[in-house]
Amino acid sequence: MANLQLKAIKKSYDNVNVIHGIDLEIKDGEFVVFVGPSGCGKSTLLRMIAGLEEITQGHLLVDGVDMTHQPATERGIAMVFQSYALYPNMTVRGNLSYPLEVSKRPKAEIKQRVELTAQKLHLNELLDRMPRALSGGQRQRVAIGRAIIREPRIFLFDEPLSNLDAELRLEMRIEIAKLHESLGNTMIYVTHDQLEAMTLADRMVVLRQGVIEQVGAPLALYHNPDNMFVAGFIGSPRINFMAADVVATTVGQVQLRIEELAIDSLIMTVQQRLNEGEKVWLGVRPEHFVSADGADCHFSSTLTFAEHLGHTNYLYVDYDQEKTLVIEQRELEKHTNGDSVTFGINAQQSLLFAQSGERIR
Ligand code: ADP
Q1: Average pLDDT, integer, range 124-143
Q2: Is residue 296 part of a domain?
């Protein structure tokens, strides 16, 4: 087990900066997920921690010891890859025991540790099989086993479930969560899948273009995003953003007009000072639209499409020519495409953002 400090870490490839100065502290035993769109630098950051990629600038400390320029083998870190990276000519037993053989552990110890690891990951029946005779999920379990058996201080996972189908992903996600619970090691996990991130993470690190946008517990990011990027990245279907004008301000309050929905007045509580005439963005998650009765304001618009998923329904509602709102409605009411529907918005469940995308609180 170990804690990790990233201090002003930068990475460039041929003078192109891809990581712009990351400061982050990961506590002993924490499960941290790096999440963000493709190309934002998640894998590069993970590979720098692993020692597979040189750190251009900044420092990496493990338990307070500077590891910035230590080789991968000296860091006490094990990594599990999306591609499994198993040795194709070795059995499962061979794949598991190989790291211990390399470090010249006694035979009896190797045997015992292979069996213990196989037990943890339900691989006992598969020890004599070759990787090609395993399913994707089983291969990934062997890859995880090969990481565990070395008893590393820190586990790194680089999109480990991306090659699995939806059902297996869910199953393995639960297994990885349980593994973290039983081992208690520090784990860092990279994914572009916000659902995976939300369910596994103690803390999520949301990255965009090589910088950290926000760090926090999954629900804290969901309820209290710092900017439109984080609000938009977390939550599925995505949060709706509507253009709004500040029409009046008093101490601690603003009155908004949302022209496109013909809403004249939505009063929101804010600490920040805004100016009359200022343009802002109102963010409302699909699940936060309510029935018009008793809501702070309401609007009517045209239903263009409805998805009925059994446990919930998503309504697509057109407004102002080409814009569409996604509204979640738990209780199914019979609507036909083209119907006019009416929904309410409550200030308390809405988020406000400046033109720059920063949250207004
Ligand atoms: P992610 O894992 O978030 O998809 P990556 O860490 O793979 O993103 O990539 C971050 C950025 O660094 C991308 O713009 C990518 O093109 C660039 N990059 C990654 N590896 C290399 C490399 N070996 N040489 C040059 N550019 C690279």
Answers
A1: 94
A2: yes
Q: Could you give the CA distance from residue 305 to residue 316 in angstroms, rounded to a whole number?
A: 5
In a domain, 340, yes or no: yes
**pTM value?**
0.94
pLDDT digits (tens, 9 = 90+) for 135-191: 998 999 999 999 999 999 999 999 999 888 888 899 889 999 999 999 999 999 999
Range of the domain at 340: 240-360
Q: How many domains does the chain have?
A: 1
Specify the CATH number for the domain of residue 318: 2.40.50
How many angstroms is it from 172 CA to the middle of ligand 1?
Answer: 26
Q: How far is Cα 114 from Cα 104, in angstroms, rounded to an integer?
A: 14
Strands (E), the chain: 4-13, 16-26, 31-35, 57-62, 65-66, 77-81, 154-158, 186-191, 203-208, 211-216, 240-250, 253-258, 263-269, 279-284, 297-308, 313-319, 323-329, 340-345, 351-354, 359-360
- CA-nearest residue, atom 1 of ligand 1: 39
The verdict on residue 120 lying in a domain is no
Closest residue (by CA) to atom 15 of ligand 1? Answer: 39
pLDDT at 331: 84
State pLDDT tens for residues 191-225: 999 989 999 999 999 999 999 999 999 999 999 99
In a domain, 317, yes or no: yes
- For residue 1, pLDDT over 70 is answered with no
CA atoms of 150 and 113, how far apart (whole Å) = 9
